[in-house]
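Researcher: I'd like a structural prediction for the single chain below. Treat it as a standalone chain; there are no partners to consider.
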Amino acid sequence: MAMTFYLDESGHSGDAVNSGDEFDFKGQPFFALAAVGIEDEAFIAARIDELKALHRIPPGELKSKSLTSKSKFVLDVISFLESIDAPILVELVDKRFFIIANIVSFQLTPACMSFPEGASTSYIRNGIADFLCAEAPNELLDIFAQACLEPSDENVLLSFSALQELGEKRRKLVGPVAECLCLMVEDARSEYLELKAEDANAYLQFLPPPDHNKRNKRVWMLPNLTSFTNIYARLNLFFSKKLSGIRIVHDQQLEIEEILQLGKANAEAPKDERPFAPRSDYVFEESATLEFAHSYESIGLQLADVVAGAVMRYFRDSKSGDTHPDLDKAVLQLIRNTNKKPGYGVNQVVASFEVRHA
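Model: Treating it as a single chain, here is the predicted structure.
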């Protein structure tokens, strides 16, 4: 029987420049996208009905946001899925760190500077991103976000200056990493000024390109898109490139369905260089299908919502030490089993000092 992967998200607050007050992202600082692989949906539905009856969950559609007081039910659902070896893949994104990762990728190590994809470049990017996550004031992120919203020579140079100023201020206290940041800013600014002499729009090469939603509105740095494409690449690893016959069903996303379809096609397209992602495989030989459906039509989508919501709430609430022990157990179980098979488990897009371990 062919396997279907059901995908749903939790913590969506729009693109990353839609950051709310003081980068609180409207009270949703984390985004999670979960994929749950199911072969026999009827069998799953019957067992979930039993668990709903046991925990006195009302009949009808399961919604993660209505299960915040039902952590034991969530634990039992995730334990059941793992007991039948249902593949569970989750992308967990710290939205503030996600913006910082874009600063590093597009301003400090842009494609036009031909940094080779690989372990060394990844190590540098991660080190600088960790430093910025710990040290960068919100004003620096604001300047970068404004450059995205209003791309211009002036705004890109302002962003470079903010990065340079931070590096200079922290040079004596932090040492080599701050020094490295200053050197990278100098190199990137020099590269930009050289390109600018030939191309008045060269500043666009130092900013993440916007996507366009269904209403043709520009959106920047969508964690939905990068999370989806990485889960797709993780599935490619999980199935050893044998994706033919695999069906992906994503919860309906009217605003960004076309963006996700284009993201899938772009991931599959041949490229000279692929992202360095040891727990994913971006070299596609076969293609899975992608469709969208309403969650009330499918227990698979409802379970993906339950998993995504659990992971998002765990990361959000554990910062204040306010998580339920059963929620802790459920998510730590997923983290503990990460990589028990290639591509499986929770991929944490967070600063290295924020990574959770089971």
